[in-house]
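Record copied across here:
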Amino acid sequence: MMKKSRYTESQIVEILKEALLTDMIEKPAQIMSRAILSHCSYLCSLHP
């Protein structure tokens, strides 16, 4: 009974892959938008 309720190795791998992919897509997007904003304000301060 216990073994049936557990995930198989391939299922775990798929779940981890999915989690990594969403992490790799969402987090860099947030980091990039922050970096772009700070870079723009930096450029604006250079050229008043």
Observations:
- The chain is about 90% helix and 0% strand.
